Amino acid sequence: MEFFADRAEAGALLAERLQDAHDPVILALPRGGVAVAAPIARALGAPLDVLVTRKIGYPPTPELGVGAIAEGGEPVFDLTLLSRLGLTPESVAHVVEDERRELARRIRAYRGDRPLPALEGREVIVVDDGLATGSTARAALRAVAGARPAKVTLAVPVGATETVESLRAEADEVVVLLTPIDFRAVGQWYEHFEQLTDADVLRLLDRA
């Protein structure tokens, strides 16, 4: 069974698989994706920024994600799960508005008044620390696609096989190092998987 020591090691290994990228922009999904993306940006000599996303939770159990939203994009829902729960996108509109406010807060915290880098015509690499349901990555990829980049690559160290396959339709390329059969959670594939804070994200961005 393979493990990554931490997110930095995972990022360094991913960077080896991304050497053919041409003048890319690296967009990390905070918080965990930033720690993976930082060594990629260093290795490729590429600019690093964040693409802020938020999970849209099932109201009685917010940990259960029924969708996600990314800055610059519209909400993306798991319509099958919504239907199974007896919900519609309209019935969780209040949750979406709450998450839009938190999205705006985090954008201000991470980027201040600085806008996202210009993505039109650029090669963009979207990075996260792993894929479970893939809802936030899907929302991020659709938001990036709306900016008309030349190419979009999703790069993650580990992911559930079905999720990885489902996201191939959302990106020009998906680079993933591990797709374990017994995948249960992203953190199980790291020896050290500490929760990052906003201060950690800012420190990594400052170094980049």
From TrEMBL:
Gene3D superfamilies: 3.40.50.2020, PRTase-like
One Pfam family from the record: Pribosyltran
Keywords, alphabetical: Glycosyltransferase, Transferase
Domain Phosphoribosyltransferase per the UniProt entry, residue ranges: 9-174
A GO MF label: glycosyltransferase activity
Keyword Glycosyltransferase: yes
Protein name: Putative phosphoribosyltransferase
